[in-house]
Design a protein that fits this description.
This protein is α+β, with helices and mostly antiparallel strands. It has a domain of about 140 residues: Dna Repair Protein Xrcc4, Chain: A, domain 1 (Beta Complex). It has a seven-stranded antiparallel sheet with strand order 1-2-3-4-7-6-5.
Length: about 210
């Protein structure tokens, strides 16, 4: 079994002007490489496809018809439709209208220019392998992205716990717990020592008040 093509540009759009279901997957396979569900040996061709996972609509171009389509829309031959589609997907500038059961109309806008494509329903026998390639390609892409995400997580250093700030002490410590701890020495006052200048003796001993002099 052929290895599924790696997913390229795609977007999910509603049909018509509605914002809800049904939704359709729009994707392309361009001339710059094998895109989603591109056929082997299809280099140089360009394919636009729309699917609801049950049915498939497609617009396929050979290099000759692609050049003609560009000329009809006033584009240079060197313009790349794959880049157009990728930018339009990023800017949500892709719109889809289902004309009937077998035809669809796709519009891709970029800046002031608009490209229009008529898509036709692909018969079920031909659509089945293309839808299978799309599903397997998307599954492979999801698995690869999950591996890359796991590798990035392993490379990220684990966050360290920040030290908790010390809680404010609301109560005085137990006096017994302060015994033996160094603290200020309270000097005892000695008799005859100056009260104003501790450490110096008073020149004249203090005497009481003589009431006889009054």
């Amino acid at each position: 079994m052929q290895r599924p093509a790696a997913p390229g540009s795609l977007c999910v759009v509603p049909a018509g002007s509605g914002q809800g279901p049904p939704l359709y997957v729009c994707y392309c396979a361009g001339p710059e490489g094998q895109g989603l569900g591109a056929e082997p040996g299809a280099a140089g061709a360009f394919h636009l496809r729309v699917t609801d996972a049950l049915e498939l609509w497609s617009a396929s171009f050979t290099p000759e018809t692609l050049e003609k389509h560009k000329a009809q829309h006033g584009l240079d031959e060197a313009e790349d439709y794959s880049s157009w589609f990728r930018v339009a997907c990023d800017q949500h500038a892709v719109s889809l209208t289902l004309k009937d059961d077998s035809n669809a109309h796709l519009t891709i806008s970029r800046e002031a220019k608009t490209l229009t494509f008529d898509l036709f329903k692909v018969p079920s026998p031909e659509a089945a392998p293309q839808l299978q390639a799309l599903m397997l390609g998307l599954a492979e892409q999801v698995c690869r992205l999950e591996r890359q995400l796991a590798a990035l997580k392993d490379m990220t250093p684990s966050s360290r716990k920040k030290p908790q700030p010390a809680k404010q002490q609301l109560f005085l410590p137990d006096p017994d717990s302060r015994r033996g701890a160094p603290g200020p020495v309270i000097r005892k006052w000695m008799p005859g020592e100056s009260i104003i200048n501790p450490g110096f003796k008073s020149k004249k001993p203090a005497s009481g008040v003589n009431f006889d002099d009054t």
